[in-house]
Amino acid sequence: MATHATEVRVQELSRLLNAAFATPLSSGNMAQAADLLEGIRTAEGIDYLILLDNKKQIIAARGWDIAQKLPPVDKLSLERDLPALIHAATPIEFAGEPFGELRFGVSTEIMRGGINQLMLQSAITIIAGVLLCALIMGLLGFWLTRHIHRLIKAAENAAIGHYEAPLPSKGLTEITQLTTRFNEMTAVIKERVDTLVMNEEKFHTIANYTHSTELWLSPDEGKLVWINDSVTRLSGYSVNECMLLGDFPLSLTMPEERDRVTETLQQALLHRTVIQDFEFRAVRRDGQPFWASVSWQPIYDSNNSYLGLRASIRDNSELKEDRLSLRKAVIELRQIQSLGQSYLSRAESERARLSALLSAMRFGVLFVDNDNRVVFHNPAFCDLWGLGPSNQLPGKPIGQILQIAENRPALGDIIATYLEELVLSDDKVDFGELTMNDGRVITQHGFKVLDSQGAANGRMWIYEDVTQQREISEHMIKLAERDSLTGLYNRHRFQQELDRMVSEADRKQSAMALVFFDLDEFKHVNDTFGHGVGDELLKCIATTIGLQVRRHEVLSRLGGDEFAILVPDCNEFEVSKLAERIVSSIAQIPFTVEGHVLRPSSSVGVALFPNHASNSLELVAHADSAMYQAKSAGKSTWRMYRQDADPSREAITRLSWKDRITDALENEGLELHYQGIYYPKTRKLAHLEALVRMKDLQKPGEIIMPGMFIPHAEKTGKIIDIDRWVIRTTIELLGQKANIPSIAINISGRSFDEPEMPDYISQQLKLHKVNPARLLVELTETAAVSDIRDAERFIDALRATGCTVCLDDFGTGFASFAYLKQLKADVLKIDGFFIKDIISDHDSQVFVKGMVSMAHEMGKTTIAEFVENEAIFNMLIELGIDQVQGYYLDKPMKNHPGLDII
To answer: What is the percent of the chain where pLDDT is above 70?
Structure first.
């Protein structure tokens, strides 16, 4: 029994001590904590107190020699005797956060005293039993004195508050008189006690059931004397816990508010001042912060003696938030008022500016009200519709205005458009294009105008003259499908026609043929006489073969000197005759250059669907294979695709070139030549382009042009090794010569399949300490568009290294403009086929101008290659080309002057 009572007492002391020391430790007030140790140790039988921090270091101690080792904490057990001193410990926490530990010793002398008292009472009980006999013996005497004993008993009951019925008082004896006086006194005392109890209950009811927390602070140190039950609702602490805290209400304050509240409270105690609604930030027992408002005033007793302060504390959080919101609203209202005055003063000037802006726009603008009457129009509207300045349009119905317009489309359709119910309901309506009487094409768009309440307030009509854009668009569509040099279908249109014919032949269960042919030794013509002569020869070939092609057959130029003919609904005999005519016709073309007579020849390959292929891809591959079989047969002939044809010559050639390329890579058989790219207006060198060449080991001193070995490198897979050699050699040169211009290199389409290539470029740049901006990487448009996803990832990776990305041969398929959103190239190099004949070909001029304009709008740089004379050079300046490259400026050379810049 004693052990259990002691254990309960230790637990109660632990909770109270935690509440007392949590506030000083959380605020770092160690002096206050030390003072609490002294005050608490002398009470409640506490022998010693030791205050530790979170690191188990002693902060303060009372009643214990800190030089001694701390005793272990006792665990009470019923099986063991209760020790004279119990060693206990309790953690100090505030708002769930630990701040230290309190070790204390509790003396069990009080408990032992209780036990001794119990034994004494037991002894008294035994003695009383012994005396019972003597009491019985005195019953006779008691009977004689029963009235006196009854009076004594009533007095004792009245002393403990039990007021029984009045004692009987009969007779005229002295005891009867004493009983009467006792009854009168008891009645008076009972009345006064009942009145006192009732008043006390009223006081407690008034004191405890208040919205605010009421408390009484002593006049000397501001110690808590009394506090009502409302404190639990406000702070989470009970009345007893508040009394034990010692510094309540300071223990409620935030640490940063403690000094301000303490100073204000001390001044109020000292000067006995009255303060209303003093606000401070407080924290509840569970750690939840709130705004508290306290009011206090001095109190005095009936003798006018100063008793301290009576204070009222309430939760003021909602009122505080309302005040802040109100203050913010007032500030915002003042700002809005100031802005309103500013806007009002600027409204007229803004209206004038808007009117001037609408008048200067090239778009026709018309505002009408809900009844389709004109409210406003700009000059461009009158110009587009042929309305003279003498016509006063505002206030007139739109139908009346359109009837007097000199330039208009079908009148009935226009009036119906403006009166449609759809126009009045939709927020935005696009009515497409109108072709006016003078041939101009305009677009019209209707927009609903809403007032400040969101109600319809008429409509706004926008008109734009798109005549020039449509003409350019038609030209671009035409050029997108046509080869700019020969006027034949290009590769893009060829692929569409091929897919269509294969699908149609498959559906009709008929046959169609694909005829591939190119010119033998055409590269020799370009290298010897220049690209201009080569272009003239290609035009002549296109004209001659065009006469051999029937109306339902499709002749296309695929690029370079490669041509193709699609022949629907045919057989082997018919297509073989066509192949013979092609070979014969080309061989008979008279072509004279500078007094030299050239005899062109061609190699023709034929493949049929479905005889030789099951789809369009196989058909193209087999026709190409048949063409190379014709070349292997001696050129100037044709061959029908045969699956059993002997491929040994092609294999031997391929293996031979593979060995030669491998040998060149291993034995310094490759070298770079450089050609300059210039700013056209200043002719200043912008950067260089590195062009790979192969040394001819069979003919020392001569070089092999890339057109001879690059195709074989691509077929054998050695092109990746060549790309890496070009990258490594160029970056080494940039690292050695820090002052030379930037250098552009060409990367093959096969590199798109090499995800490590951008990392390889980045590693080489870091190895040789080269700024990535000095390296330009050129990718051909055809290769990029053919595998758009891999190209997009490859270009993004290159841009991430910091290199500039250039899209080479741009414009070979105009549809590539659509891919520029995906291919984030920095530079567009326009294909030479648009440049070579730009002087005489108006379509090429339009196309180049359009590409330059669109490139500039997208923030990209343009380069024109194949600039071979001054006339082309000057025209490119007029068209706004950013940079130029070609034989007119310089030729590729190993020791370019640009490499000698110091």
So the answer is: 84
